Amino acid sequence: MSTRVTFGHDAQNPRRVFISGQKRGVFGVIKRELRRRSAIEPIIGHMKTEGHLGRCYLKGRAGDAANVILSAVGHNFRRILAWLRELLCLFLVRLCRVLAGPAPLNSPS
Question: How far is CA 37 from the centre of its chain?
Fold first, then answer.
């Protein structure tokens, strides 16, 4: 006895399927989730093309799941490092301005 699992439009008893571009019946939390998914999909595409998200042949599905999690962690870590780099630059600019001291005023002659 084999159990066949199908997803998407061919699912035998889906709870609910939302088709891209669907207008009716989409509101509230579902609309917010679809917007969030639209924001994440380009990042996933970039990860796939840059080679960060490939098949992990070591552990099958568990390896693929671990690869996705580690890629997401790496992506978030790169974003945090970029933010810290910007913060450090702002701090160094302020520090240089303070150490340089105020500009001397021109005395009237």
Answer: 10
Taking the CA atoms of the chain, what radius of gyration do you get in angstroms?
A: 26
pLDDT tens digits, 88-109: 999 999 999 888 877 667 766 6
User: Cα(65)–Cα(72) distance, rounded to whole angstroms?
Assistant: 11
Cα–Cα distance between 83 and 55 in angstroms, integer?
30
pTM for the structure as a whole: 0.54
Bin 101: left if φ > 0, else alpha if -120 < ψ < 50, else beta.
Answer: left
Residues 6+ apart with CB under 8 A from 47: 53, 71, 75
Taking each helix axis as running N to C, give the angle between helix 61-100 and helix 29-49, from 0 to 180 degrees, rounded to the nearest 10: 90
